[in-house]
Design brief:
37% helix; 22% strand; alpha+beta; elongated
């Protein structure tokens, strides 16, 4: 369940008003909210990596609801998808380029499954491709002993027609060798920018419009963190260092509690 943007904005305004710390306009809030959601979203990857070390060291709390790695992984659930096909998009150096056709920018590319048609009416196969870097790609292609096959394909990020590395995260390319008939890719997409939409009333006031709004895509338990982190930025905008200090202390305490 997403976090309601109106609830967060009203909470932030209430705290600022209660402490007589100033006011944040909807547009200022939207800019701050976008940055805070990205900050929290990007923190999931190192947090999950750190939590996974407990699995490796056999120190993970495996009690229901208290496994820190599973909890970190659950926070990414709204963004893990196979939305959008990877369609053929030309070739480079004799290899088929597969391009992401989804509507959302990508944050991470996960497992790549390559499907190969059968020969002479035989059944096809689907194999998980191994990701390699550009240096390994060149070495493997030149070594017959470790050359990729339909049972053990490989994949790498693609290159553009000019030979430069593709950096377009909206529609990136990948190359799979041997070239498959189709691919299935598990990905993590970027969150949509939150927006507190509004109409201007007869007295110049801002009236909330749910139709023009976009909620936070983080899970419900992140609401408290969103409020605290937004207050930190509000202190910078209002130029009140005490807001920044109080919010930063609260955020630090929550982080310590989560990672104990």
């Amino acid at each position: 369940m997403a976090v309601n943007v109106n609830t967060v904005y009203k909470t932030v305004l209430y705290i600022l008003n209660k402490e007589q710390r100033g006011y944040i306009t909807p547009d200022e809030f939207n800019n701050i909210a976008t940055q805070v959601q990205l900050d929290i979203f990007n923190s999931y990857f190192p947090d999950a990596d750190q939590a996974n070390r407990k699995n490796q060291n056999n120190t993970q709390n495996d009690t229901e609801f208290f496994n820190s790695y599973i909890n970190a992984e659950n926070k990414l659930t709204p963004f893990i998808t196979d939305e959008g096909d990877w369609g053929p998009a030309g070739a480079t150096n004799g290899y088929q380029l597969w391009r992401w056709n989804g509507s959302r920018p990508l944050a991470k590319i996960g497992i790549v499954e390559a499907t190969y048609n059968g020969v002479n009416g035989g059944s096809g196969i689907t194999s998980i491709a191994d990701r390699i870097n550009r240096k390994e790609w060149a070495k493997i292609r030149g070594n017959k002993l470790v050359a990729p096959s339909k049972d053990d394909p490989i994949w790498v990020t693609g290159t553009g027609t000019s030979g430069g590395a593709v950096s377009d995260t909206t529609n990136p390319y990948i190359i799979v060798d041997p070239t498959p008939a189709d691919i299935y890719v598990n990905v993590v997409i970027m969150p949509r920018n939150p927006k507190w939409g509004y109409n201007v009333g007869s007295l110049g006031q801002y009236d909330y419009s749910s139709a023009a709004s976009v909620d936070f895509e983080l899970i419900a338990e992140e609401q408290n963190k969103l409020v605290i982190e937004i207050l930190k930025y509000c202190g910078v905008v209002i130029k009140d260092p005490q807001i920044v200090q109080i919010a930063a202390q609260q955020a630090q305490q929550e982080e310590i509690n989560e990672k104990r």
